[in-house]
């Protein structure tokens, strides 16, 4: 009995440590996005280089957390909710790693913009990126507390990010039409905009994993209203 | 002893059935991509609608295989190689589902191109898409046989897809510059090209999961040469 409690205590400590690592990874990814946005906005090449250098840290964290998850499944044979937590974590870190890639891509665009006058095309990315960072911040917060109500709220925010993205693309298109020699560089900025818009989709994925963990129900491919219904069910 | 063999026989049958489902899902995704390409090429709206309708089948297969994987972990508590297989499958189906999304996106572009003369912009997508489909076909084949040599070969093919993609984008850019009123539609075609290029990255991911399963080594974030070295090690 005592031994059982001891083992289960160790198990909980291990699970808790993995969760903490996910949040650390999430914090790093959030910082990477924020630095990439600043690098683009202020044309800060040194900061852009740092973002690219640090991308391997995000990758290494993904690999290491993945290993911890596989180890805990093999060693502790978790069932039910514990197992769902491990599966939710394995999926969450994949999305976090891809968000890290977005930051690195944005940093490359900053480096590949030698002409200062081209910075005007980057201006429209800032509010878009701010929204994406806010969404990431909120979903990490929901993850820390495993709060399904908060997760469902973040899930809904993606529509706003999509509208903002559409507006950015329309604006960039008019720049393209005004002067066709800007097309190659504006395309780079558009790729960044699209990558940022995808950050919202990845945050939605993480919301879905939180709900999967807490409610034991897979809500991927459901709309916001159907997700609300799942949440209301006991 | 007999009972043990019986249970292990059942377990193997369950694992085998999940693997078969992954291959069925892969086959469906390959077909979706192929139909989407034809729909774009021949401006076949009916076929495009079918691709969009069938996307939910791909999604449902992902959810169902995911459930089988969680169930087998909880019930059978697989260790070592068996566990790696289940983890590899959980990750593989995420990538397959996203490739399915690419097919649906291409189908939408076909539907949103009412003007027959715009079809000329779609022509350049065909060889790109053919390459991506071939890569998917080969990686599914490597998955079926869990053949790491074949996986490493497919992994290398992505460079060729990237070069083809760059060529397509350059060509589409010249169309944009020739007549700026084509910009909005050409952008749609460019998004498709980019999505197809990402199919290659997702096939590379699946190659990495195959190597992870067989060799027990996580080769994500390694270049092709380092992967070769992992393969040579016993």
Automatic annotation (TrEMBL), chains A, B:
Domain of life: Bacteria
Name the UniProt record assigns to this protein: Phosphate-specific transport system accessory protein PhoU
PANTHER family noted in UniProt: PHOSPHATE-SPECIFIC TRANSPORT SYSTEM ACCESSORY PROTEIN PHOU
Biological process according to GO: intracellular phosphate ion homeostasis; negative regulation of phosphate metabolic process; phosphate ion transport
The keyword Cytoplasm is annotated on this UniProt entry: yes
Entry-linked Gene3D superfamilies: Phosphate transport system protein phou homolog 2, domain 2
Cellular localization per UniProt: Cytoplasm
Keywords, in A-Z order: Cytoplasm, Phosphate transport, Transport
UniProt record similarity statement: Belongs to the PhoU family.
Presence of the UniProt keyword Metal-binding in the record: no
Gene Ontology CC: one annotated term: cytoplasm
Gene label: phoU
Signal sequence interval, chain numbering: none
Assembly and oligomerization: Homodimer.
Functional description taken from the UniProt entry: Plays a role in the regulation of phosphate uptake.
NCBIfam families: phoU_full, PRK11115.1
Domain PhoU: 23-108, 128-210
SUPFAM superfamilies the record matches: PhoU-like
